[in-house]
Amino acid sequence: MRDAEEQAAFAPSLPFALVSDRETVVGKGCLGIVAPGAGALEGRVRGYFAARPEGPRLLLGALPFSAGAREHLYQPADVVRGAGRAGFAAAFPPPALVRSPVPARTWTVVPEPPVAAYRAAVAQALEHLARGDEGLRKVVLSRSLRLTSDRPIDCFEVLRGLAEDPAVTAYCVPLAARDGSPASARVLVGATPELLLAKDGASVTSRPLAGSARRSADAGADRAAAQALSASDKDRREHREVVTAILDQLAPYCAELGTPEGTSLTSTASMWHLGTRIVGRLRDASVSSVELAARLHPTPAVCGTPRAAAAKLIAELEGYDRGFYAGAVGWCEEGGNGAWHVAIRCAEIEGAGARLYAGAGIVPGSDPAGEGEETAAKFAALLRALGVSEQYAAGVEDAA
Ligand SMILES: C=C(O[C@H]1C=CC=C(C(=O)O)[C@@H]1O)C(=O)O
């Protein structure tokens, strides 16, 4: 497709939204998209702004998981930005009260692959790790759930539900239609607790997470899960791979770089994680957030170490295209500032269908059944926001 045709083909059906305790960014419409090309993304972004002197000086969108896949970055026609969540309720007001009862949705849930096949893939990954094939130390394997409702899914309702958790950045990214027709509009909706990179002037921040435990409604059990995670050697190794990789990638760009608070427990409404805040001061403040995000991505929180060997094994063992799952979502300004969040805990929604993704880091010592359960726990926030009972989904998974 030629550039002009491609631009015409992307007419977002919904606004872009990113909402967290830190900021709200809402973008409507599309003035143009960054065309694919052989050059590095940061060069194409610079070229885009140079060729388009009009419109907001901001690009929004998503980076795919796979290196060869096409990124989705576009310039909105209108942008509303604000600190914290202030702008969110105004941009996405809750629906008016409806007097006549709306019939409950019905859902079908199909695990793809079934959890037993996922456990088998984890066992295979453990064999590769034990042999140290291609120097492999960690690989992140995902699985998905395909959900179908009896009527179209309301992406904003899902977004509003996800945004209730103050620990996450909830996002909604309209994607290009698969076949160019607006009838097959796709939307990436999710709520991530993980910051890939934020850049403001010379200051850069990343907040990798790796190492997980399901939270519990029982306070004692919840505390015990957190303590066990904090003490787990397997989870600490899993986490260290991510922090080391990010420090290594950022070091050449930074005059100062460190992890001031070290590694600590952090939580969302449904999960405990190990997290480390990484902060740095750039030698050259003009480096773009897109360049830094592209350098860091995919971190060992979603791919593994070494990166190329892990990506190859993921392609072999998962057998599906991750698309934008485990990529990044965010924004960047013409001057280079921006924020990119790891695109996890998400679903690609199309009409009445949603495909949910969840992955888990595998290192020597991981247990296939435990990783299967961890991915089930990571589906919980989205299932809740969609209105699907977790027990129902678990029952389908057990039966598959
Ligand atoms: C890959 C995912 O989570 C990553 C982020 C936090 C903890 C993770 C873990 O413990 O495996 C994963 O690295 C996902 O949710 O799909």
From TrEMBL:
Family: Belongs to the isochorismate synthase family.
UniProt xrefs under SUPFAM superfamilies: ADC synthase (SSF56322)
Pfam families for the chain: Chorismate_bind
PANTHER family xref list: ISOCHORISMATE SYNTHASE ENTC
One GO molecular-function entry: isochorismate synthase activity
Gene3D superfamilies named among the record's database cross-references: Anthranilate synthase
Catalytic activity: chorismate = isochorismate
Entries under NCBIfam families matching the protein: isochor_syn (TIGR00543)
Enzyme class, broadest EC rank: isomerase
UniProt EC number: 5.4.4.2
Keywords of the record: Isomerase
UniProt organism field: Ancylobacter pratisalsi
InterPro entries according to UniProt: ADC_synthase (IPR005801), Chorismate_C (IPR015890), IsoChor_synthase (IPR004561)
Positions of the Chorismate-utilising enzyme C-terminal domain: 117-378
Name this polypeptide is given: isochorismate synthase
